[in-house]
UniProtKB/TrEMBL annotation:
Co-factor(s): Mg(2+)
Lineage: Bacteria, Pseudomonadati, Pseudomonadota, Alphaproteobacteria, Rhodobacterales
A GO-annotated cellular component: cytosol
Gene name, Swiss-Prot/TrEMBL: engB
Role description: Necessary for normal cell division and for the maintenance of normal septation.
Species of provenance: Pseudoponticoccus marisrubri
Keywords from the UniProt entry: Cell cycle, Cell division, GTP-binding, Magnesium, Metal-binding, Nucleotide-binding, Septation
Gene Ontology BP terms: division septum assembly
Record protein name field: Probable GTP-binding protein EngB
Every EngB-type G domain range: 27-200
Length: 200
């Protein structure tokens, strides 16, 4: 009920941040979303908030990498981190992204949880391990959210869940519950809303 109310209320884009001095005040309950580009991060944020077009896919390597802040109700931020793992991203873009991300994760006192999006067809890949390690080092509790569950046959789900579970066990900052979602079909959206509403 709290989750329903929260997500039925105001959600607005606040700002895109390219440097640490652009961050909004660190005074709201904050959760962030990370994931390889094309994992379905924008679709998930749009499904969660029920606002189509709120988060836009930034599928252009070399494009300015912004951390996008959304206000959720009066006391929360949803934070959309830049997608990673572009095959042909210029080195300077990757380095700038890593530096900003590191600084953000290390310095954000109100950050309660990071949701790391993982394609349910592929499980955790080498490219994801980098951010999981960074989250460990920053002591930011993270939770794996599997995306595009509708693209995985029922009989193949257990195997992916097992792979993800095994990988997570190696990460001290991992929260054990894995959320299986489909932005297309709506699976897991209510669960994720409840998790976000429950963080205080
Ligand atoms: P982003 O780059 O991580 O923001 O990814 P997008 O949200 O733009 O999604 C990338 C592609 O995956 C798009 O073509 C989406 O339509 C598709 N997609 C995203 N979520 C789902 C889902 O739950 N199910 C299916 N079948 N496709 C999805």
């Amino acid at each position: 009920e709290a989750a329903r109310k929260l997500f039925a209320g105001e959600v607005d884009f606040l700002k895109g941040v390219v440097a640490m001095d652009g961050l909004p005040p660190d005074n709201r309950i904050e959760v962030c979303f990370a994931g390889r580009s094309n994992v379905g991060k924008s679709s998930l944020i749009n499904a969660l908030t029920g606002r189509k077009g709120l988060a836009r896919a930034s599928n252009t390597p070399g494009r300015t990498q912004e951390i996008n802040f959304f206000t959720l109700g009066a006391e929360r931020y949803l934070v959309d981190l830049p997608g990673y793992g572009f095959a042909n991203a210029p080195v300077n873009v990757v380095q700038a992204w890593q530096a900003l991300l590191k600084a953000y994760l290390a310095g954000r006192v109100s950050l309660r949880r990071a949701f790391v999006l993982i394609d349910a067809r592929h499980g955790i890949k080498a490219v994801d391990e980098e951010i999981l390690t960074l989250l460990d080092r920053s002591a930011v509790t993270f939770q794996a959210v599997l995306t595009k569950a509708d693209k995985v046959k029922e009989k193949d789900r257990a195997k992916v869940l097992e792979q993800v579970r095994t990988r997570l066990a190696k990460h001290p900052a991992a929260y054990p519950e894995i959320v299986l979602t489909s932005s297309e079909k709506g699976d897991g959206i209510a669960t994720l809303r409840a998790i976000i509403a429950g963080l205080g």
